């Protein structure tokens, strides 16, 4: 028994004649007849009675046809699933990102991605950059977004963004009118900063030290999104990555260039032991476009 025999048997039941069945499957009538005979022999059942040069389905054929229809429904479903996979429109996508990207860029990217691929299930873990690296190295995620530099190998890495941090200030604050702000300009200002475990905070501390100053935040907050909220409420000023700053526009917050430049560098990580899925490649294309719209650069 083979799939071609099943196709001709199914066509025969649908068309009612050998000629009609042959046309449905694109065969000659003799070829269709031979396949029907072979199928009867394979199942060892009488499938058609020959009355007045017509083939009439037997009760056994009618019962068998129900099973064949279920089989072809499964085959059709396999074709649909394959088409969905080719279009990256089904399956699962597992992401992990450092908080600045998870809260600053991911919402817009996921909104755009889900609009195009509504049947793909997505999970997003908000983790430290070190933990994102661990998850990618353990093959536990499809894509990770972590701040550079990386501390371990075992993952494929590609650059995602390299953009300067900006100083976030409450709207109407005197510093909002400055063309740029330096560590010396922040002397006496209540500073809101990330914890010292953050790479961006460590770079800020070094910028203050080079200016002969000590970075003493009035408030430390774990997430850049929280820093932005506190700034908008007038509790102080603080450095923000460009995605958090962009997402905070219109919330009572302004941003000013900071000198010396402190770069926010992020890479995309994915496991070395498996190729990127179509869903992952489609998401990368979407989030690159969202990044470009914030940074005004090329999505490639």
UniProtKB/TrEMBL annotation:
The keyword Phosphoprotein does not apply. GO terms for molecular function: DNA-binding transcription factor activity; sequence-specific DNA binding. Keywords: DNA-binding, Transcription, Transcription regulation. GO terms for biological process: lysine biosynthetic process via diaminopimelate; positive regulation of gene expression. Residues 1-58 form the HTH lysR-type domain. InterPro entries: LysR_HTH_N, LysR_subst-bd, NocR_PBP2, WH-like_DNA-bd_sf, WH_DNA-bd_sf. Pfam families: HTH_1, LysR_substrate. Transmembrane segments: none annotated. It comes from the Bacteria. Belongs to the LysR transcriptional regulatory family. This is HTH lysR-type domain-containing protein. The lineage of its organism: Bacteria, Pseudomonadati, Pseudomonadota, Alphaproteobacteria, Hyphomicrobiales.
């Amino acid at each position: 028994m083979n799939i071609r025999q099943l196709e001709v048997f199914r066509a025969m039941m649908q068309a009612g004649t050998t000629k009609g069945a042959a046309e449905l499957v694109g065969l000659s009538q003799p070829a269709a007849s031979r396949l029907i005979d072979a199928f009867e022999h394979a199942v060892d059942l009488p499938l058609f009675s020959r009355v007045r040069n017509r083939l009439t389905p037997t009760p056994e054929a009618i019962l068998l046809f129900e099973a064949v229809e279920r089989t072809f429904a499964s085959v059709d479903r396999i074709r649909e699933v394959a088409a969905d996979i080719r279009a990256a429109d089904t399956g699962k996508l597992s992401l992990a990102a450092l908080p600045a990207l998870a809260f600053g860029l991911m919402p817009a990217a996921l909104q755009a991605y889900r609009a195009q691929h509504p049947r793909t299930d997505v999970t997003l873990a908000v983790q430290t950059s070190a933990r994102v690296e661990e998850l990618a190295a353990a093959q536990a995620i499809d894509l990770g977004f972590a701040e550079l530099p990386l501390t371990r190998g075992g993952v494929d890495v590609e650059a995602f963004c390299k953009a300067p941090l900006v100083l976030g200030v409450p709207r109407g604050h005197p510093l909002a009118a400055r063309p740029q702000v330096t560590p010396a300009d922040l002397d006496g200002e209540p500073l809101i900063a990330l914890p010292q475990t953050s790479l961006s905070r460590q770079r800020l501390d070094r910028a203050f030290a080079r200016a002969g100053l000590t970075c003493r935040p009035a408030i430390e907050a774990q997430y850049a999104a929280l820093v932005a909220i506190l700034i908008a409420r007038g509790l102080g000023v603080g450095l923000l990555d460009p995605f958090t700053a962009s997402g905070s526009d219109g919330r009572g917050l302004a941003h000013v260039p900071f000198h010396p430049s402190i770069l926010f560098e992020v890479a995309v990580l994915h496991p070395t032991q498996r190729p990127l899925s179509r869903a992952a490649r489609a998401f990368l294309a979407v989030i690159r476009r969202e990044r470009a719209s914030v940074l005004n650069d090329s999505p490639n």
